[in-house]
Fold this protein.
Amino acid sequence: AQSVTQLGSHVSVSEGALVLLRCNYSSSVPPYLFWYVQYPNQGLQLLLKYTSAATLVKGINGFEAEFKKSETSFHLTKPSAHMSDAAEYFCAVNFGNEKLTFGTGTRLTIIP
Amino acid sequence: KAGVTQTPRYLIKTRGQQVTLSCSPISGHRSVSWYQQTPGQGLQFLFEYFSETQRNKGNFPGRFSGRQFSNSRSEMNVSTLELGDSALYLCASSMGPPSYNEQFFGPGTRLTVL
């Protein structure tokens, strides 16, 4: 079955430290991949998306993600965490069936 | 440009009742998708409408239904509510298919079933 796995439902990093949120998917077909962010009491907002143009995708707020086909991964990174990055992050994948499958989310906490 | 709006924001119902949630997409967006968000299951896709037609459906029972009007506004209905239906229901709109277009999400309707 096609699935999206986000390792770590909760991640804590210190302010200024590297942020790494993991996303793996199960598919042999290169999909469309997205990262969305949800701030408290708000809907989701698109951070970035991969559409096969380039394996390293840059998004908003200094985030970027690298598509690695051999590892079926699309991990999200940011070099230096800011307090405003505290939110829940969702990886989403289109497996070619016109539906978007979301991971279960990773809640990011920033330690001052 | 106004964002996606959802009404009501909060709703409390009892088991067995039915509920209707409303979503107004961004002007010009013809695709509207609905998701159920719960702490344990994350975001689960309910259905997607495009030009008044249901284009995709998730794995939810028939108690969950929806429709889209000619102005792209959408409603979803849940009949015979169960405790497990308590969740945040999110609506999202996009220019085209949500599978590869950016979706814009509303703030959600939080449904509590007692």
